[in-house]
Design brief:
Elements: H1 11-21, E1 32-35, E2 38-41, H2 44-53, H3 60-72, H4 75-82, H5 86-92, H6 94-98, H7 102-119, H8 122-135, H9 140-153, H10 165-178, H11 181-189, H12 198-211, H13 214-220, H14 244-255, H15 264-273, H16 284-291, H17 298-309
Antiparallel strand pairs: 1-2
Helix pairs in contact: 2-3, 7-10, 8-9, 9-15, 10-11, 11-12, 11-13, 13-14, 14-17
Length: 316
């Protein structure tokens, strides 16, 4: 079965997978949705405005996430999450890419990453999706649905487009050279840094934090978990533990990354790794706190996230 290039075996991912297979469910209220660290109560007017802003096709939690992203993130990133045709979306970026726009180059690499598994073998991908659905396990419908979402959004790509892992690295290297800190962070997290050495790694982590770029936080997160354990240069950073990777990702969500139920983040976890919520309306933050972090670890993770956000937790 084709696997996404960003998914990797780690203690965090294994823990998530075990919990997902076990079918851990989270019962949500019909009237409230999680936003950042608090709850937003939707009255009729708020719900109507949110629904209208997104065409009425997504649940309130996703709509609020998208609305927040639209306020803080470049439009081309918002369009990536909203587009049902990523081939056309990528074509729309070509003028900006030709002019050397680093963010456009980064988004092209994200399309490559998102669609790679499907585009390399569309027929086999569809066959695997059907096999997963036919297994009729508890997580089968969610995973099949996520894979079908990928198939729909990536439908116009073919093997000849070469959205291969090698080309993902090529595109991200080009974006990093053009000035995309998110691409630079992604390369380091995948073990292919622009520069070698602990001094560079430390400098990059600091630059990511200073950037407050949610894509950069998210891109760096896989390299800040167990993979960073024992790295002296990162010993005073949020790095090296089973919760560090999640903390970086949660910070990205709080900074405006689209982490809603239909987001590319949730879709990729589910479609590529079988890490799926049993509640289709659950966003990434709710899923993590429900299924990946034990009750005793919540305060630890919250402190990590606050540290990455440059915030101080109030003493209770």
């Amino acid at each position: 079965m084709a696997m996404g290039t960003r998914m990797r075996v780690s203690a965090v991912v294994v823990a998530l997978a075990i919990l997902a297979v076990a079918g851990v469910a989270w019962v949500r209220s019909h009237r409230t949705v999680g936003v950042d660290s608090g709850l937003v109560t939707l009255d009729a007017v708020d719900a109507a405005l949110v629904e209208r802003s997104n065409g009425g096709d997504v649940p309130p939690s996703q709509a609020i996430t998208v609305a927040r992203v639209a306020a803080h993130v470049p439009q081309i990133r918002v369009e990536f999450e909203r587009s049902d045709d990523l081939f056309a979306y990528m074509q729309s970026l070509e003028p900006a890419v030709r002019s050397g726009d680093a963010d456009a180059m980064w988004m092209v690499s994200r399309v490559y990453d998102y669609c790679s598994g499907y585009s390399m073998a569309p027929t086999a991908y569809a066959r695997d999706t059907q096999v997963i659905r036919d297994m009729a396990m508890r997580g089968s419908p969610a995973m099949a649905s996520a894979r079908e979402r990928v198939s729909r959004r990536c439908a116009r790509f073919v093997p000849q487009d070469d959205l291969s892992p090698r080309m993902i690295v090529v595109k991200r290297t080009e974006a990093a050279q053009a000035g995309s800190i998110a691409a630079e962070a992604s390369l380091m997290a995948s073990g292919k840094p622009v520069k070698e050495g602990e001094a560079y790694a430390r400098d990059l982590v600091q630059r990511v934090q200073e950037s407050k770029d949610p894509d950069a936080y998210s891109a760096l997160s896989p390299g800040m978990g167990i993979a960073a354990s024992g790295r002296v240069a990162l010993s005073d950073q949020v790095a090296g533990t089973q919760f560090s990777e999640l903390a970086w990702q949660l910070a990205a969500c709080r900074m405006g990354l689209d982490c809603g139920p239909q987001s590319s983040l949730m879709t990729s976890y589910c479609a590529n790794g079988g890490i799926c919520s049993t509640d289709p309306s659950q966003d990434f933050q709710s899923f993590v706190y429900d299924a990946a972090i034990p009750r005793q670890g919540v305060d630890v993770v919250n402190a990590m996230v606050d540290s990455l956000m440059g915030e101080k937790r109030a003493k209770e």
